[in-house]
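Protocol step 4 of 5: obtain the predicted structure for the target chain.
Materials: sequence only (see below). No template structures provided, no constraints applied. The aim of this step is simply to have a reference model before the mutagenesis design in step 5. Sequence pasted as it appears in the construct record:
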Amino acid sequence: MQREPGRDSQQMGIIHMKLLSCIVLPLAMMTVVVCDGFAQAQKPPTATVAFREARDLIGDGEWQRAETAFNRFLVGFPKDPQIPAALYWLAFSLKQQNKFPAADTVLTRLIQEHPASTGWVNDARAMRLEIAPRLRNTQVIEQGVSDSDDEIRLAALQSLFEARPERAIAMATEILKPGSGSSRQLKEGTLTLLGDAETTDAIPLLVQVARNDTDMRVRRNATEALGEIEDSTVIEPLQSLALQSTDSGVARAAIEGLAEQGSLARKALLEVVRSGSSVELRAEAVEALGEIEGDPAVVEDLLSIMSLAKEPRIQEAVIEALGEIELTQAESALAQIARTSTNVEVRRSAVEALADHETESAAEALASLYDSEKVEAVKEEIIDALEGTESRSAMRKLGQIAATETSGRLRTLAISALSKFEDPEAVRLLEQAFKQGRPQ
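Step 4 output (structure tokens):
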């Protein structure tokens, strides 16, 4: 049978119009498509798919949409094994929206209705403790503080620091006192919270634990927490721990804590450099001086240490510290060491540290050093350092070396370094160097 011309296209147009007339209506867990007055139910998603889609919204930070999706899951699949998890993530999405009363209600439901889901119940209890200060729910916090589970106790203690700091210090004292029977996990967590709280009220307790606890690892953690508190009163005990502790870990933690105190701890660190029990600890105190920002006096201290130091490790530490200090005085000090030291390796290290400053003034100092240096190995280091600064002063000095250096090896290195600069002037300098003779 012969079709009428255009009939197929007419039928397709009618079908397209019918599709356009369809309306999609989401009803609970089932999608209903209404086309020309006839309702056609589409297959609802499985519980696994619905939960995964809701969980993905958590991962995307879509808190309000996640709240809606998990509520729909709870209604649509009330007997599903994932209900405890859905309740937890619903509460999480509510917390992220600062809907703390609603979140607390959902968490309470999870705890009461699903006690056998131990993992989710513990997480729910921890979240209740987290939001308790926002709800002024001191009862929940106090219950958590006396809980037998260490993680719950730590979550409660964290909330206690936010709600009632003086009560938190008292509770921490009980946990950390000799003979308390507290586990290492509980002690270490408590020390971390004391350091994070950054309250001077915690200093006497931390000093006592750092000096006297029978567990050396706990003593190290107490020393680290002490260093987190930026206050001048921590300097003396930290210096004492750095000089007197028989445990290198405690001494090292004390030095790191002193470095956190900035210029206030400068004299204490110098004392450790002078009197530390080992070369390594003294070197670490030197490196800690390099972490003090913006204090020119530190540069003078380091130069003084360098002039007296005989141990290579101390000399290395001084150069490393000067490389970290972003002051022109530090650049000048490194240039002075590179120019005057009788030790070739020390001069090379000073050149390398000077290049780390990546400034025009550093490049100019390196160019000057090249002219006064006699040892070819150090000159090689200077060429490499000039390339690393990527400055115009360095580029021009490399051009001069490439054109006039009598050592074929050094000329080759300078030409190679100069070729790395993406600058029209670098091309001109290379051409000029080749005109004066190719490297040997």
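Step 4 remarks: The first strand starts at residue 22 and ends at 27. The radius of gyration is 35 Å.
Proceed to step 5.
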